[in-house]
Amino acid sequence: MAFQHPSFGTVSDDRIIIFDTTLRDGEQSPGFSMNIEEKLRMAHALGELGVDVIEAGFPVASAGDFESVRRIAEHVRGPVICGLARSGGKRDIESAGEALRQAERKRIHNFISTSPLHMKYKLRMEPETVLEIIAEGNRKARQYTDDVEWSAEDGSRTEADFLCRCVEVAIRNGATTINIPDTVGFATPEEMRAIFTMLRERVPGADSVIFSAHNHNDLGLAVANTLASVEGGARQIECTINGIGERAGNAALEEIVMALKTRHDQFGRVTGIVTPKLLGMSRMLATITGFDVQPNKAIVGRNAFAHESGIHQDGVLKNAATYEIMTPESVGWTKTSLVLGKHSGRAAFRDKLAQLGYAELDDTALNAAFARFKDLADRKKDVFDDDIRALVDDESRDHERIRLIALELSSGTKQQAHAKLEITVDGAVQYVAVSGNGPVDAAFRAISQAFPHTAELALFSVANVTEGTDAQARTTVRLQENGKLVDGQGADADTVVSAVRAYIHALNKLLVKRDRAEPEALN
């Protein structure tokens, strides 16, 4: 059986539509703020990855959200560009329609809560009122586009009979995709499979729409619930890169895609994702947000294809299939290799960057990265691919208001630490000299004096990029201000310099957070 869809035309029954909400649900989680240029960069990369639908934001939430959706709609071609809206919001649907006006293909995704708990305490509405809003919201969305999605917020905790009524009203009033989210990550795989099976069997017109699954990970079941939803008849999956999102996050795109691909015998479903780009996509998001994935993260964690046990190593050497159910290359991993040296030129450096997935780097970022590479090659015996990635990631961040120019440190067992710092703030040079209790403390005090702020240090963590005593340090700094959390990252062969880069990265992200309103918790 095939589905007819206003944006995709004929969709074969074995095809899964990948709906990425990294830029909406993922970005609204604590610490994961992105500016407009970073969102645009991510959207282009998601298109190259093969994502079918990009949920670009919640246009009515703030001027910044509206502008980011508008820019993505204007510049990104290929995927359907989607804007979120409340079904009964006063200006939500109009705002989404206007933000999406220039999109090649566009979708309005409207939602309202349907569970007894949400209707009573969040909406304070009777069920009949909710049904009226569903009808009105979908009719209004159809005035802007034929591609309309409707979501039952807290759908997994909604009474079955009422959920059927809601879905029927949404379909009758123009919805072409129906999303049933497990908003709070409460459901089990058996329950999600049963919900989709029930809706497809009971709701009139169910065979004319695509059902979608959006699962949160509060109990660690998001991916399992999503795969069970597919077995129940869902043909669209809502997910995020690295599984980022509210609270414990969303179902991870890379895990779902590779589960469907590796276990095609079980699910019989395919996606349009270019899987060798998964690792690069994961690393791009980590660079932009400042959040690394944990080492043992499936598919994209650095230990995902590492084998330390002697028995495992022996088996892999004889036949990789003994302990690897997919090849590292299929998701973008390559062997760590020695790369360029201090005598290498710019052309060779650019070629290496292209091999590592940085072909889109502009000349300014390329020149800055090349200068840092030459400095690193002078200081470090062996330069690895991961070293190159770390320094390029540092230089490819967009539109930072605060930039490090120079840092000088002196410290020791018999003297107090001193830091001399030079930075630019909105282009203006600031120079300070400060003492502290150790070099990191002195450096951080210098930043606070050069750029006064009230943010508090909530986390300071240092790890190595590669191996050896001359390895680059990768530092993570978390700042907290008025309930807002941001993480920044920095890398350098000097640990204190990497810490300063991370602190400044976090400050730049905090400035983005200050300028935008936080949308309410959604599905």
From TrEMBL:
Cofactor needs: Mn(2+)
An example molecular function term from Gene Ontology annotations: manganese ion binding
UniProt EC number: 2.3.3.13
UniProt pathway annotation: Amino-acid biosynthesis; L-leucine biosynthesis; L-leucine from 3-methyl-2-oxobutanoate: step 1/4
Reactions performed catalytically: 3-methyl-2-oxobutanoate + acetyl-CoA + H2O = (2S)-2-isopropylmalate + CoA + H(+)
InterPro entries per the UniProt record, alphabetical: 2-IPM_HCS-like, 2-isopropylmalate_synth_dimer, AIPM/Hcit_synth_CS, Aldolase_TIM, LeuA/HCS_post-cat, LeuA_allosteric_dom_sf, LeuA_bact_synth, PYR_CT
EC class (word): transferase
Binding, Mn(2+): 25, 214, 216, 250
GO cellular component assignments: cytoplasm
GO terms classed as biological process: L-leucine biosynthetic process
Domain called Pyruvate carboxyltransferase: residue spans: 16-279
Domain of life the protein comes from: Bacteria
Keyword Acyltransferase set for record: yes
Location of the region described as Regulatory domain in the Swiss-Prot/TrEMBL record: 403-523
Keywords for the protein's UniProt record, in alphabetical order: Acyltransferase, Amino-acid biosynthesis, Branched-chain amino acid biosynthesis, Cytoplasm, Leucine biosynthesis, Manganese, Metal-binding, Transferase
SMART domains listed in its UniProt record: LeuA_dimer (SM00917)
Subunit-structure text: Homodimer.
Family to which the UniProt record says this protein belongs: Belongs to the alpha-IPM synthase/homocitrate synthase family. LeuA type 1 subfamily.
Role description: Catalyzes the condensation of the acetyl group of acetyl-CoA with 3-methyl-2-oxobutanoate (2-ketoisovalerate) to form 3-carboxy-3-hydroxy-4-methylpentanoate (2-isopropylmalate).
Protein name listed in UniProt: 2-isopropylmalate synthase
Upper classification of the organism: Bacteria, Pseudomonadati, Pseudomonadota, Alphaproteobacteria, Acetobacterales
Gene: leuA
